Amino acid sequence: MLRNEAFGRHSKAWQISTTISQCRRWGEALAKTGEDSPDAVYPESVNADSRGISQRILAIAESATLKVDAKAKALKAQGRPVISFAAGEPDFPTPPHVVEAALSAVKDPANHRYTPAAGLAPLKKAIAEKTLRDSGWAVEPGQVVVTNGGKQAVYQAFQALLNPGDEVILPTPYWTTYPEAIALAGGIPIEVFAGADQDYKVTVAQLEAARTPRTKALLFVSPSNPTGAVLSAEETRAIGEWALENDLWVIADEIYQNLVYDMGVEHALSIVEAVPGLSEKCILINGVAKTYAMTGWRLGWMVGPPDVIAAATNLQSHLSSNVSNISQLAALSALQGDQDAATTMRDAFNVRRHTIVKGLNAIDGVLCPTPQGAFYVYPDVSGLLGKTWAGRTPTTSLELADLILEKCEVAAVPGEAFGPSGYLRFSYALGDEDLAEGIARLQAFFRA
């Protein structure tokens, strides 16, 4: 009953389709439906002939970022010179010493066997050391679960915490996976939007206005995907103190923690370092994918209080068991080895950041704030909407993204994947030449 009542009050879903994107997501209720109706739990938009497939699974939105990138790659395979700004994936190779560690590991028969579900002991120790070094939180290796990428850590964090009807405050724009992971755990994402005029940073006042007796947790992401926004020490501390005062859990995704610029620091301030009292109700999510160009190695982790980690470990033991031993030992080398390659990549991203911000802001109708972290820009493109370009008049960022893919052969992810319309996400983790060419195409098109 609780599940039906909760979703009956707070849930809606909608689907927007174009040639490059399909987005469905949860939000607040349009109207309360009967508690005995399946539509009180799952949206009507997925009640098509599904051959008996679970409506819970059918309700999951396809990853818009992956869909756009796949579309771009398919067009390139057909011979079209598409430049994709869609995927959040460094164009650099994994550092050589990491690859060498994996080659050594694969030759060792010990790594051909099952290992503990929560991860190899040396890697968990190294993750605990990184957590102290970069997040200011002294944890034991037993407070770590190694996961198949950061996505699994996000999923397991919400599965471990949420009961049906629990609300999670979700600062918006958000990474497209977050609301899906919350909904799959029976929770309700409560979106709190901050636009370009706020540098995409929510305030404590906004968070407080969204809090209800059902609020269980806050999702905290700094640096942000999709915006690249990084909260200052003061902003981070204020939000952490608010969460502590209201006895909320905090799930902090720190996957871009070491990709910060112009701040005079090597990493973004962790909310648990800013407010140590949160350590009893905080889960940190991280991984090697972004900092070390290891997206394909599928190696992430979650760190938290012992009881939550025990619950997540139990879940993982049934869900996937141990992560590939080869990937784990590669990650160990990444964390403990030479950091020069990671620094070189960050420096290159910084140069590209300035290039793309300057290039996009040169287009009349585009407002592109300068991000301080990650490798994304998130321009407000509302000034381009409602105008006619090459005989078409886009009124949403979905339509605009479709237009520039067709006419400019440039792929970007529309704002509907991350929240409201009116924005595009561009990743600048692609080659310098492609970046310059892609921006030049956009400038030429919107000058015409």
Structure description:
This protein is 39% helix and 13% strand. The protein is an alpha/beta fold. The protein folds into 3 domains: 2-58, no CATH class; 64-93 and 341-447, Aspartate Aminotransferase, domain 1 (Alpha-Beta Complex), CATH 3.90.1150.10; 96-336, 3-Layer(aba) Sandwich (Aspartate Aminotransferase, domain 2), CATH 3.40.640.10. The protein has a 7-stranded mixed sheet, sandwiched between helices. A 3-stranded antiparallel sheet has the order 11-14-13. The radius of gyration is 22 Å and the shape is globular. Mean pLDDT is 89; it is low at 1-46.
What labels describe this entry?
single chain, 448 residues, alpha/beta, Aspartate Aminotransferase, domain 1, Aspartate Aminotransferase, domain 2, 3 domains, 7-stranded mixed β-sheet, 3-stranded antiparallel β-sheet, 15 helices, 14 strands, disordered N terminus
